[in-house]
Design goal:
2 copies of one chain form a homodimer.
Chain A lengths: L8 E5 L6 E6 L6 H6 L6 E7 L2 H14 L4 E7 L8 H13 L7 E6 L1 H13 L5 E6 L2 H7 L7 E3 L2 E5 L7 E5 L8 H18 L1 H16 L2 H20 L14 H10 L9 H18 L5 H14 L15 H9 L4 E2 L2 E7 L5 E7 L1 H11 L3
The complex binds nicotinamide-adenine-dinucleotide (2 copies) and zinc ion (2 copies).
């Protein structure tokens, strides 16, 4: 059964001859075969998914492909951030090559951001670039990771340090599937939704403050929030595909967030990406206030909303303790936003007024972290 | 000591804001520090090389960098085609990240095509793309693999099946270092030099027939042959960077050649890449004659020249035996030049008249191979 087409939204990512559509709405997994078949020249697909998503949606997805005469193979990987590794990259590449996916065929990521990042990377390097379709199943993946072409895996030196830019040819965001997402993961994805408001959409942030319960519940408000988020990301990506400038704004909260993820060894029992981003966004607002850029009230407003939603907003909410400020600083310095030893940070002048600062003194960051770390 | 600048040639690869120079001539390793320092904003370099090249040139190269205030680390890998593997890709990425190579710093490949392909791939994925400098030390790498941005590793499913396009920022081809190359490797590289004549430069092929001894001996004729080859490759790459059309001509002899390399398990004791290309080019001419596209005399002329130089020209010269035609065909079909199941081949109407044929019947190829395979 397919939902009425009226509920469906389309966001276009404008990248010249590599432009693509993001379809957002209910019933897109059952409709996937038709949407893919109408766009793809080839008739072969390799589907990569994880052990949580497979029992819920893989059969439906494969059946939808089969109904349109598309031959598909699938590979199920362990769920979790640790799957973004060379080890699993090798197995995805191997499946894709074994399935003889050729230039007009495609590789599909059916899952959250972990599966999307890993599979996109494999698609980007198999035969030096194969077609790639994102079927994001987590809120985070639907509003963020599936759009924009950043792919990659983690290294012992830091998160996402190995990868390529490889744009998908299509994104199918089935909003129904978010109903099986754990509340914790839904909240984590919501942190990225709120992020778009905090970057440069104060009205959207205010709308979220009023309507977040409806977004969590499903239906029109959810579709609206996801479409607004995708549009925001699509605009930034179209303007700056390779992150030479404004795309860096999307990293609001992420410099601190990634350091916290590294410090907790990517252990999702302690911290998932969106939670790190939530704490990171609060820290970014507080640090901006400390630098006399923003009013402390903005930080308090952000903190209040994220706390109301149920997200962590301070480092002392991370179970298991954290390393000292200097070690966190070291993780920050190894992050991607470093040029010639200077620190690039996303700071803010208030809700919806973020900007790229590329001369943040390391000593200020360390002093700030010392203040904020649990004693 | 540096050779007079008059002997040095520069070929520019025209790719808009990713254009770069190939410097060709004697004394470029001792001069590397200066050439790099004048072009690079950063002051950190990771040098990747192999166990044959390291004892010969690594100290000189590191000293040249140091003299210009460039901080460098090095990694020495085993020599040979098997080094183009995920295992070694992981160690190169790890060295690059451990050295904290940032956006303005660079990764250097000091070696033959194996080191160049592997290191270029690592540079292409470390931090989603790092600066990359090729210092090719084999003839093959100087005239072919170091130019054009194709990078990659091998898979059990076939050669170069995993990789990215990642253009270097500079190529330094020191023609002196070819004096330590084994005669066999020099000949193998020469196959690629001859290839440019066979593709579309009949005059260059005729010049090589007369002057090949001088090219092997060194001096002006060698520099001339390398510069002509680099210019030929630069022209093709500038016209078709991603191999959507004419760049495929560079694969003359390679479809057969790669199948032979796969069939001999990339065992360089039996066959090196250029030898496979030499046999492959002769086969491509013979197959074209069989298809009534070219005169058999062209095939004989090509065979005569390559044999005179000392290259293998027929499959029965490969020690250790070959699998049956069907198995070779299978390796061909898994090669990159396959679209929707149809075979793309580079065929020829005669010396210097190659073209892309994308509808070659598989049955003809199998029948031809059966004829040519040693009984
Ligand atoms: N490429 C980018 O631009 C980008 C942007 C942001 C984040 N990321 C990356 O995304 C990753 C985080 O993504 P994520 O939060 O989706 O993580 P995830 O892929 O691990 O998914 C979270 C959990 O939810 C499960 N899950 C997914 N969909 C489900 C569903 N419909 N029902 C039930 N369970 C489901 C997964 O199995 C997993 O256990 C991180 O690795 C982060 O670095 C990438
Ligand atoms: N990227 C491309 O466009 C492209 C094009 C053609 C070939 N290739 C690849 O290039 C590889 C073959 O390159 P190759 O023939 O240079 O192989 P190679 O790198 O293995 O070098 C051949 C041998 O010569 C040694 N050597 C290199 N320079 C030397 C020197 N100056 N003195 C003494 N010994 C030296 C090496 O250690 C090695 O043992 C293959 O993997 C092939 O697929 C890539
Ligand atoms: Zn994020
Ligand atoms: Zn070659």
């Amino acid at each position: 059964m397919t939902a009425p087409a009226t509920a469906r939204r389309t966001v276009r990512v404008d990248l010249g001859d590599r432009s693509y559509d993001i379809l957002i709405g209910p019933g897109l997994i059952p409709a996937a075969g038709r949407e893919i078949a109408s766009r793809l020249k080839g008739r072969k697909i390799a589907v990569i998914t994880d052990a949580h998503v497979a029992p819920l949606y893989l059969d439906d997805f494969m059946a939808a492909l089969k109904a349109e005469g598309i031959e598909a193979v699938s590979l199920v990987l362990p769920a979790g951030e640790k799957t973004k590794s060379f080890e699993h990259l090798i197995s995805v590449c191997d499946s894709v090559l074994a399935a003889r996916i050729e230039r007009n065929d495609a590789v599909v990521a059916l899952g959250g951001g972990v599966i999307g990042d890993l599979t996109g990377f494999a698609a980007g390097i198999a035969r030096r670039g194969s077609r790639f379709i994102q079927v994001p199943t987590s809120l985070l993946a639907q509003v963020d990771s599936s759009v924009g072409g950043k792919t990659g895996i983690n290294s012992s030196h830091g998160k996402n340090l190995i990868g390529v830019f490889h744009q998908p040819d299509l994104v199918l965001a089935d909003t129904d599937v978010l109903d099986t997402l754990s509340p914790r993961e839904f909240r984590a994805g919501y942190a990225e939704v709120a992020k778009y408001g905090l970057i440069d959409k104060p009205d959207f942030f205010a709308w979220l403050e009023k309507n977040w319960r409806a977004v969590f519940a499903g239906g029109e408000a959810r579709i609206e929030a996801i479409a607004t988020s995708c549009q925001a990301k699509a605009d930034v990506v179209a303007a700056d595909e390779r992150e030479n400038g404004q795309r860096a704004l999307l990293n609001l909260g992420h410099t601190f967030g990634h350091a916290l993820e590294a410090a907790t060894h990517y252990d999702s029992a302690r911290l998932v990406h969106g939670e790190g981003v939530s704490i990171g966004m609060v820290l970014a607002h507080q640090f901006s206030a400390r630098m006399n850029l923003a009013s402390p009230d903005d930080g308090k407003r952000v903190e209040a909303h994220l706390r109301e939603v149920g997200l962590p907003t301070a480092m002392d909410q991370i179970p298991g303790g954290l390393p000292p400020a200097e070690v966190l600083m070291d993780a920050i310095a190894q992050d991607k936003k470093v040029k010639g030893g200077k620190l690039t940070f996303i700071l803010t002048r208030g809700v919806g007024q973020s900007f790229v600062a590329d001369d943040v003194p390391q000593s200020e960051v360390v002093a700030f972290l010392k203040e904020k770390l649990p004693k």
